[in-house]
Design brief:
Helix content: 40-55%
Number of strands: 6
Strand order of the largest sheet: 3-2-1-4-5-6
Strand content: 5-15%
Order of helices and strands: EHHHHHEHEHEHEHEH
Structural class: alpha/beta
Largest sheet: 6 strands, parallel
Number of helices: 10
Shape: globular
């Protein structure tokens, strides 16, 4: 494996500690509307564009459930939970070290997130990283969400990178599959939600999804404990 010429970042759960925030919003919705929820189901929805999250909820609970109303409530609760944290989402360990490394080595990088650009900008501003990602591809810029590779292919084109020589950093199964499908090298960093609560009463989950840590790790080409480890790995390859 030779040196990489570029790096692409996912956002939620990868550079920001936002998955716990989002999962708490899902738990609030589950209690309010009476449906079951657990980390595995939530993880199966991570990394997807809005329309596919709604489709995933319909698949999990059935077409007869008003998941659009649930989803609207979830989105409101995300904002509420963040405000309870003084508007912060929290940076993941090693993020600043990796960004500094890439800048010092002049390695191009971009953010490729399924979230809307408005939310991305809010998170970056909240964590004082407004200028940290000069190249951003968001979920509204693509027709097909992860696990389709479209968002990564567009992000690579944005910075002039060859997918075969680009490392994609992800924490979700959909993201890892998207990276692999696009001919990138996928790098998995686990965002552990397994210790968080589950809701076991209410509308049942009809199809328990994929998304366990080991299952995702098996599909990734590379695996790291933290973002700081990525900088060390890239330096060894130089």
């Amino acid at each position: 494996m030779g040196p990489f010429q570029a790096v692409l970042f996912d956002m939620d759960g990868l550079i920001f500690d936002s998955e716990r925030l989002c999962y708490r919003a899902y738990l609030r919705a589950a209690r309010a509307f009476g449906f079951q929820m657990n980390p595995a189901l939530y993880m199966s929805l991570c990394g997807r564009i809005e329309s596919e999250v709604v489709a995933g909820l319909k698949h999990a609970f059935g077409d007869d459930k008003d998941v659009a109303t649930w989803r609207a409530y979830i989105k409101k609760q995300k904002s509420a939970v963040r405000m309870e944290q003084n508007g912060r989402v929290g940076k993941k360990p090693g993020l600043l070290e990796l960004l500094n490394y890439l800048q010092e080595r002049r390695i191009p990088y971009a953010l490729a997130s399924s979230s809307a650009r408005s939310l991305i900008d809010q998170y970056l501003e909240a964590e004082y990283l407004t200028h940290a990602f000069p190249h951003i591809m968001d979920g509204t810029s693509v027709r097909r969400g992860k696990p389709d590779p479209e968002i990564f292919l567009k992000a690579a084109e944005l910075i002039g990178a060859d997918p075969a020589r680009t490392l994609v950093l992800e924490d979700s199964l959909a993201g890892i599959r998207a990276a692999n499908a696009g001919g990138f090298t996928s790098g998995f960093i686990f965002d552990d939600l397994t210790g968080m609560d589950s809701i076991t009463t209410g509308y049942p989950i009809l199809d328990q999804p994929e998304g366990t840590c080991e299952g995702i790790r098996r599909e990734a080409v590379l695996s790291f404990d933290t973002l700081a480890d990525v900088a060390d790995f890239l330096e060894v390859l130089r």
